[in-house]
Amino acid sequence: MVGDDHADATATECVASAAVSWLPDDFVHPVYTPVPGTALHLRPIRETDTAIDYPAVMGSRERLWSIFGPAWSWPKETMTYEEDRLDLLRHEKEIAAHQSFNYALLDEEETAILGCVYIDPPERTGSDGEVSWWVVDDLVGSEVERALDALVPQWIATDWPFRRPRFLGRDITWQDWLALPPIS
User: Which SUPFAM superfamilies does the record match to this protein (predicted)?
Assistant: First the structure.
């Protein structure tokens, strides 16, 4: 669900680093990850999730912009349903190509997206993967948010091939991340 500026930067990074992949060739990304202590799970987002993604994003848009806006220019106040659909289609293609990953936080029946986890190749020096996540406004400060906050670093350590992951907005502020030198 990252905005166009991030998409352009990510695409550029992927093209620039095509000769040296950011993931091992034999890496198989997780397709279903339960969130302990909840009835929720993570799975790769799909274009067909637009009907449940759009209200989640736009319902939390102001807070999400305060987090992701300075870095990714997302989510714009004027984002349309069609723009969200195209963004999810791009994410789905990037996941299939192992260029970047967007995992939806879903209820058991997959009738609601309650947040997302992004796993991207590094855009800034000092890490081999950049991870960020969010929950919808209604879940801020909840047991669900705490469970996701506990799960993500553990999941990255056990199921992903990173040696130096960076947790944006967690172990480094977004402002400090933006100040780091970009990968050239």
Answer: Acyl-CoA N-acyltransferases (Nat) (SSF55729)
CA end-to-end span of the chain: 24
Backbone φ, ψ for residue 30 (5° rounding): -60, 145
Rounded to whole angstroms, how far apart are CA atoms 70 and 34? 31
141-169 average pLDDT score: 98
**pLDDT (0 to 100) of residue 9:** 39
* Cβ contact 15:22 at 8 Å: no
Work out the average pLDDT over 163-174.
97
| Interatomic CA distance for residues 13 and 123, integer angstroms | 7
Contacting residues for 96 by C-beta, under 8 A, at least 6 apart:
none
d(CA 136, CA 115): 6
Residue type (1 letter), 128: D
Q: What tokens were used for 48?
A: 């067909």
